[in-house]
Amino acid sequence: MSLVSFSGEVVQLIGQITLPTTLGTGSPARTVNLTYLVVGARSVHNVILGRPGMCAFGIISSTIHGSLKFPTEACIATLHSESTICVAEIRQSEGNGAQPPALLTEEWAIHPDFPEQKIVIGAQLPERTKRLRSINLKLNPKKCSFGLEEGKFYGVWITQSGIQAHPDKVQAVVSMQPPKTVKEIQSLNGKLVVLHHFISKAADRTIPFMNVLKKSTGETVTVYLSASHFAISAVLVVHRNQAQIPVYYVSRVLKDYETRYPIIEKLALVLVHASRRLRRYFQAFNIEVQTNLQIQQIIRKPEVSGRLTKWAIELSAFDITYRTRGPVKGQVVADFLTEVFAEESTKEKPVLSKVWNLYTDGASSKEEAGVGLILIDPEGIEYTYALRFEFKTSNNETEYEALLAGLQTAAKAGASSVLAHVDSLLVANQVNGEYEAREENMIRYLNQVNSLMATFDSCKIVHIPRSKNKKADALSKLASVTFCHSSKEVLVETLQALAISLGEAVMSITVQEKSWITPIFDYLENGKLPEDKAHARKIKVKALHYQVHDGKLYRKTFLGPLLRCLTL
Question: Taking the model in full, what pTM does it have?
Fold first, then answer.
């Protein structure tokens, strides 16, 4: 017979032997005859107790607490693994007046070369180990020291009252002259770190030294920003030997919706992009942003919202100062990178050469409403157009009517690429998807605009201030404005109804006189059933899934809307 270990090693048995085995000492002890297998192997253990032996003693083990419990005639005994001597803790049963035995103690020499220096194991340590055991905390014997003499020990001073700071280290800090250089501040800071265990609020007291080190070692890095219609870029520059030395640069192509950002928001975007790509530089150095636009005003405004608030919170983690741009040395690099990416973007996405520009504006009052249109062809020829409404509209409806009329006019003129300029921020943002249309009439207007824009090869809606849309505004009010083609007349047309009130294309539904709906509808509405009993029973079963509402048949769904029943 042989034994196979977990590693696959085969060990041959020498024989078997039965021995009386005793667990515990004194009264809380128990003896059981166990049969052991004898093998010839090198091991630090003389006896290994397996599961059959544990069952014979009735042992319950706890790996977490490192202990064994087993029943005896007097009590429940516990064996712990913290000590080389197994000490039994007795849990007295009710009515038993036996006293627990005294704790065993043993003297150990601290070092073989000094046998007179001894430590008593079991005198006061059981109380400490019991407290540690209660919170499930164990000590590493290789890192624990007991019975130490007074004096220096690993950089601290051992006394009868406890552990104190080393007097030499304290004196070194006291006798130190006030620091005058960065190296001396670093030396003082290192000495205070060694004594931080013995200093109250050491972190708060050393903050001034850390701030001085940060200011003295931090070098100012200048950031130049640049943005075009298609790309953004940033360049990091340091000033050394009266020269600007480029350190790093980042650039990327703007996404479609980012190309519609104002130029000042594009510069804020490139600053955020640079802080993400070059976070280590922004954290280690003082950043100085030089630009002619007041980026800090839009970032630090308390009323900003949306993406600007997100960018402001992200940039607040860095030490950034904003200054007006001085010499154009580093700015040239940023502009060059932007031009390169802009050229690449135009190659990837060529812009149509024949772009028609459309300017629209609407005016609404209690008495009347009207819109003005200016359509400019690729050659620069202007076409003016005015519409007068005989119905009442709101300001937003008037702006949508102007945009729809302008797009329809551009389509009739044969334009394939249109760039529409509107001074209504609501209309521009709703069409571009930044605002959500909630009112029913706004949703219908938006759907018509999107349908009309889809007929062009390229169509974009941009927002412009009212000051740049004076001609269309004047047309909408039918006021006299000097035009470059004043010899031409202004065409005026009268509209009779809203654009969204026109009939929309709806799929026509023709209801046959009799269909599969008829028997179910007659049963639910009038209680009529076919004369055939089998067919009538099928109608009753099917009718459970349907209901009639406003004279129309609907099919029920589980946790969903009613479905309208149609015929082919």
Answer: 0.29
